[in-house]
Design goal:
Strand content: 5-15%
Number of domains: 2
Helix content: 40-55%
Largest sheet: 7 strands, mixed
CATH class of the largest domain: Alpha Beta
CATH superfamily of the largest domain: Periplasmic binding protein-like II
Distance between the termini: 70 Å
Structural class: alpha+beta
Length: 573
Amino acid sequence: MRKQLLTTTAAMLLAFTGSAFADMDAAKKFLDDEIGDMSSLDRAAQEAEMQWFIDAAKPFAGMDIKVVSETITTHEYESKVLAPAFTAITGIKITHDLIGEGDVVEKLQTQMQSGENIYDAYINDSDLIGTHWRYQQARSLTKWMENEAKDVTNPDLDLEDFIGLKFTTAPDGDLYQLPDQQFANLYWFRYDWFNDEKNKADFKEKYGYDLGVPVNWSAYEDIAEFFTGREIDGKKVYGHMDYGKKDPSLGWRFTDAWLSMAGNGDKGLPNGLPVDEWGIKVDENSRPVGSCVARGGDTNGPAAVYSIEKYLDWMKAYAPAAAQGMTFSESGPVPSQGEVAQQMFTYTAFTADFVKDGLPVVNEDGTPKWRFAPSPHGVYWQEGMKLGYQDVGSWTLLKSTPEDRAKAAWLYAQFVVSKTVDVKKSHVGLTLIRDSSINHQSFTDRAPKLGGLIEFYRSPARVQWSPTGTNIPDYPKLAQLWWQAIGDASSGAKTAQEAMDSLCAEQEKVLERLERAGVQGDIGPKLAEEHDIEYWHKDAVSKGNLAPQLKIENEKEQPQTVNYDELVKSWQQ
């Protein structure tokens, strides 16, 4: 019987790996065929890292491990290329499922609530860091690596090389998630149109300052007005692009840092403290105390309302009429069709789709006619605030996963973010997570075809882009409120003020339920007393904070632009 079992195991490995034993032959084939010199490690170091994986995986060979992520290019590469390679090298069979982002969160919630092990590891957004820390359903990776998983933690993982660890570290100082891919929302504009001499002269004559990358929303608005209806290459063009359909994707449009760009919340990186960009305030113990200005929050404060009003005004005046009825995915390709001059923010994960040969926004030599630049900020924004959103899909291990399965999954997680693999993976998905990859020579060579993406990630500006932070005690419950409330404003059913009043009240209902339930212990919500905005503003200023700010009577500030090429030079210096 034992001999039969061994034979069956060998047959399984043969099916998975193409050889009777998972060993360095499979690793060398992977390095030859897939990686080559697309690595921050030389070949000897690559082989040494692969040998470590082979040795560490021996106790788990033959196991069938299931992990899950949303469907984006980076994860498709992991699922179709890296998972089979890992199986061949280690003998651990990996099934890497690809599903919708909302479905990932739903599976995660179900496992957290039921304790049933649905997946052995999840790649879910670091926006859930506050949720994971407060519910204590996810393993602290800091403690995991120091204790139970010490024997399966890559000595060459090099955590300091990851650019996003601040986003996945909780207030207790522990790391709860390991970044797998990340991308920012950046300003996008037609570099060729902005450098056209007639456009430059006409803009200067009309507005009295130079056409360039807008530093603030006043300049963005002028540029949007200037280009809308202008004829370029025989087409009427638009100065702005957005989307407005009442759909779950409308929520991302705003929770992904739109309010912070306007100047909502407090100063602080990666997130405002004590009031974050969602307008949720925490006390000195990181307990959420409110969302509405009546409790010291800022979700319905002047900066937030201004951000919604500008969104509505610009959509109506400067975007294609069809944008109002579009979802996120429908609106995404529109700028690449060649009729849009600028977009306030574009997810850099879609860079590859904007540089395809034959597009109206790509030159014959393959270089883009467009560029990425830092997003402009609104009138309430002050230096020291975050300026945009960065998505950080991160590996998360739940406590409900049995230890041996979690260890095997942890090996796979480390494999797909390893220095051996990461440069190649970064070229495929353009979702950069490691300094060593960002600064690799291959990205210096490719940078001219990526429209400023690499220049941005090598710049000091990138620290102002961050995901949702730790003030949010239950991301899945709170995030779903946003698209419904703002959808009412987008459809005209409510004013911007009414929509944000409704949103903050609904958020506080969730905070109140969590407080009553006591499920998050002494780091869960504890709602503050209610007072007027003047009381809370005075209280904030007395403590050196900002939020909630009082209304600025003239919200059209002095417009300011900067020359893109000079901006890039300043970064390099």
